[in-house]
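Possible regression after last week's pipeline update?

I re-ran a chain I had predicted before the update to compare outputs. Posting the input and the new output here so someone can diff against the archived version. Not blocking, just want to make sure nothing changed silently.
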Amino acid sequence: MSGGIRIVDAGWSTTIQDRGRTGLAHLGVPRAGAVDPGAHALVNRLVGNGAEAATLETAGGLVVEALGAVVAATSGDGVRHTMRTGERVRVDPPQDGVWAYLAVRGGISVDPVLGSRSHDTLSGIGPGAIRAGDRLDVGPDPHTDLVVDHAPVRPRSRELRLWPGPRVEWFRDGIDAMTGFDWRVGAETSRVGVRLSAGDFRPTASMPAQVASEGLVTGAIQITPDGEPIVMLSNHPTTGGYPVIAVVDPEDVADIAQASPGTVIRFRHAARSG
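New output (post-update):
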C-alpha cells in the first residue's frame, strides 16, 4: 500500500464508486457504480489502473491532499498529477458536465460489500459517504506503464438515441412522444435519475387502473402520472411502478447524466440511426 489521501473538502455528493454490483437486482440491490462509466474508466487508465479500481465521484468542490507520493488523475481536466506529501488537488466537473472523477494509482482501497466498493445512495450499502477529514488508503501499485499524462475529455452529445420501452404501446404516439421535442433537464438531478420537461407538452398513457411494479434498467424513461419523464441513472431502484416508454441507448446514458440543469436535449430513434 502506497501513500494515501486526506479529504480536505468533501465537496458535493462525493462518494466512492467502481463499476457497481451485478447480478443482485432480483434481491432488490441496485447496481450503483459510476454514473459516467467512461469518465471513471478514463481517469483509471491515466494512472495505470484497471477499470475495476474504485475512484471518487463528485459533483464538484472536492479537495484532497496527498499523505505520501500519489499519482492521481481527474476527469475535469483529463490530466494526470504526480503529487508529493501535502500537495492538494481540487476536483470539479468540466464546464458542460455535472460529475467528475478522481483516480489514484492503486485505486481507493476500501473493503468491498457484495462484490463492489461503490456507495449505494439509495440503500447506503457499501463504504460510507465521504466527509472532510476522512483518510483513504491507496491500494498496491499495479506495476503498469504510464503511457500518457493527459487525455482529451469526450465532447457531450445533446441528441440521444432511444429504443422502444416495454410499455411504449400504452402511449398514443408511441416512441414519437419523446422525439421531435426539445427536452429541458430539470433541477431534480441525482445519481438516481434525471427529470425532463418540454414546456406544456406531456406524454400521456392509456393504462390499466392498477399497474404492477416492473424491473428497471439504466436508461429507462419512466413517465410519471403528471406526464414528466424521468431517465433512470446508475443508482436507480430495481423496480418501478410508472410505465417505461423508452430506453436511452447505453452509450448515450452518460451524456444525459452529465447534462446540467437547464440543458436542452433531443431524442431520436436508435433503430433509424443506421
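Follow-up from reviewer: compared with the archived run. The two ends are 49 Å apart (CA to CA). Marking as no regression found.
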